Amino acid sequence: MTDTNFVRPGREPLAQVPGPGQRFVVAGGETFSDTDPTTQERVATVRSSTPSDVDEAVQRAAHAFTTARWRNDGAVRARVLFHYAERLRADRDRLAELLTREQGKTISEARSEILGSAEMVEYYAGLARAVYGRSIALGDDAHGVVVREPVGVVAVVTPWNWPLTLLVRSLAPALAAGNACVVKPASLTPAITVEGLELLASDPELPEGILTCVLGPGDVVGAALVSHPAVDMVAFTGESTTGIDVMRRAADDLRKVALELGGKSPNIVFADAKLDKALDGAVNAIFTTSGQICTAGSRLLVEAPVYDEFVGRLVERAQALRMGDPLDPATTLAPLVSAAQQRTVLEYVDIGRKEGSLLTDTDVPVEGILERANFVAPAVIADLPTDSRVVQEEVFGPVLTVHSFSDEAEAVRLAEDTPFGLAAGLWTSDLDRAWRIGRALRAGTVWINTYHHFYAEAEVGGFRRSGLGRQQGIEGLFEFTETKHLNFDSKATLWCAPAPISPARWRW
Ligand code: NAD
User: Which residue is catalytic, options 294, 303, 394, 479?
Assistant: First the structure.
């Protein structure tokens, strides 16, 4: 069992995990510390799961999947998910504070994450009663019914940057479709995950075992989970290299995978765009979650005639971001999630400084307790060769590379010049151009005259190294189903027919 305790010196503990009834967490191994990235104080002590805990969690899920009414009763699934959405909304403030304390993001972003998660759950609650198949007339005496069925036991493995939204984005459709789920959160954000899941797991209508959770390091606990023979599908969100490893492990038993991976998204500004709006969009594209977001618009491409003016204004806006305590609503740039992430990002800034021109001041103007925070000042870097690691690799921090282009063809060529294909932004007043370039870019989402707007009903996902499969929308529900053809045919089979059957009506 887990004995995660939230400790905030000088204050009452934020929460206690597990509380009564938190049997959905299966963890009996060593403990590890969960640290506040702003103050470096301990937020929680978390008990890890062992490989045998992983086995127990999966066996509980497998048993529940085969024995509970859950997979055949969309009405119960809808009720449970609607109820969960309500409880997330009602608990928004407590969860948002915990999210900020554990992950470091600003409190306003944390609140929108909780509300966005509630909306996602609500959307799939509605779809839980609409997991439709179709029927096909196959001649006078035959009929086919294609039904959609849940896949079985789904392992949901999640990252730390948007820990609740990215969890429910897979969990809610998986449950809506009738699966049983075993969740494995990132080790940097176990507390918000367990507290968020508790609101679902304690629902009296959720059958025992349909939701279990394991905690601990990815290379041990995550690897044991995605390799477990009783897991039928892995829904993984994380880095591309980890996703490839997950897919290799899943291949051993040919289990299904849905992979939402990294990105290096281009944000393209044409001279005919509404430049004030494009500037707001460019700031939002890279500095949301301090750049720790898979869809970060981390490569800004600006048409040559407006390049100098646009980049100059962008640098001013970047320098005006306010680093501070993320619990303070006035803070606009939060610390990075961990000291390790801070080191990695600063290494990229150093490469950028050596290979290109760093246009921003990298001082971190904070003092007192905030000096211990994992801040990285916004870095805007120009004049980089296109094969620089800073241009090609996902940095996952507030680091923006800027490039100029002279025409549409060059814009598309630069935009496509990385191995990723998660998202892109496009700013122009020319509708024909928006259509042409929107179609030319190989990315799962192309935002036109906007950036970072997500909707539960609109799918997201990656081309190329950014992933496999789609999440959100109806596609996100279907990822967690298998189809089956039930064939009703009164004709004699080919081999037993008393007289030859016309080839056109053969039924193999
Ligand atoms: P990560 O790949 O390090 O870890 C993701 C999850 O996988 C964690 O729970 C981790 O413990 C687990 N894990 C690690 N090794 C594993 C293994 N061998 N087997 C099974 N599980 C394993 O990613 P992260 O650092 O937590 O998150 C940042 C990354 O996630 C970035 O690359 C970002 O682009 C990506 N991401 C993608 C999306 C998307 O929708 N495409 C969304 C958010 C984040």
Answer: 294
Pocket test for ligand 1, best of 54, 239, 298, 418 (most atoms within 8 A of CB): 239
Does the Cβ of 158 fall within 6 Å of ligand 1? yes
Q: Which atom of ligand 1 is found nearest the CA of 240?
A: 32
Q: Is 260 a catalytic residue?
A: yes
b/e map 429-455, b = 16+ CB within 10 Å: eeeebbeebeebbbbbbbbbeebbebe
State both tokens at 421. Answer: 């294909």
Active-site residue, selected from the candidate residues 260, 303, 394, 479:
260
Q: For 341-394, what is each residue's pLDDT tens digit?
A: 999 999 999 999 999 999 999 887 778 778 899 999 999 999 999 999 999 999
61, containing H or E segment: helix 51-67
pLDDT by residue (tens digit) across 380-406? 999 999 999 999 999 999 999 999 999
Give the Cα separation of 83 and 71 in Å (integer): 18
What domains lie within the chain, and their CATH numbers?
Answer: 15-261+462-485 (3.40.605.10), 266-448 (3.40.309.10)
Nearest residue CA, atom 18 of ligand 1? 219
- Give kind and range of the element (H or E) at residue 391: helix 389-392
Other C-beta atoms closer than 10 Å to the C-beta of 251 total 10
Q: Are 164 and 194 in contact (CB under 8 A)?
A: no
Q: E strands within 242-372?
A: 256-260, 266-269, 299-303, 357-358
- Which amino acid, residue 42? R
8 A C-beta contact, residue 264 and residue 298: yes
Q: Residue of the nearest CA to atom 31 in ligand 1?
A: 239
Q: H or E segment at 108?
A: helix 107-127
Q: Taking the model in full, what pTM does it have?
A: 0.94
| CB contact at 8 A, 155 and 62 | no
CB 216 within 8 A of CB 91: no
393 is catalytic: no
CB distance 34 to 102 below 8 Å = yes
